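Me: I hope this is not a bother. Any chance you could explain this protein sequence and its structure tokens? It all follows right here:
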Amino acid sequence: MKNDSLDQNPFLKKLMRTFDRGDTLFEQGEMGNTVFLILKGEVNLIAKRDNETSLIGKVGSGEFIGEKALLQEKPFPRFCSATAGEELLVLELGAAQFSQLEKDAPAIFNVLLKKAFKTAVQRLDASNRLCNILKIFEPRKRFLNYVHFIFSSNGRSNLKGRTVLLSPFDISFHIGCTPEDAQDWLSTLCDLHVLVAEDDSQYTVQDENTLLTVDTESLAFPEAA
């Protein structure tokens, strides 16, 4: 369903919100009872643990955040914070609005329901993929697979030119290496012209094929394997 189709529904139009890059949709631990459907743009999901922040995922156009709100009206604590990675257009609604939509516009309700199921399936697939990556014993191979996973986490088929946040702390937190090793390996990928370092731990894919075929021997042996 295109955004202009949603715009034609007066009820949904009132529930649409816009955010500028860097704006916060909600904070970790904050109580909420609404779900967000991303109509345009991308959202960064950020978790805070032990006074350190970690990027745990990205949500793009056509995906949901906070699907629990479709099943219950009682507020629940947000698992993480959500910030706009770029200019956003979202649809925000709670269980009551979703139920009203089922009565007033069943065709749109069915489309949104399918999108919610699709989001759930995609996240399950991503979780299974990440679990398989974490089972890789060799730290450098685990690192390379994790980096590709982050770049491809929103399902894009062509990763060349895509920029994501890859901080050494995020990487060490998720795959069990030291931040120093993560930084060293990221620098090596830049030296190999696989990635281009941008500002604030932002990296851009220069050559996806090379990322998939980098020899682990080209990366320094980890300090703590």
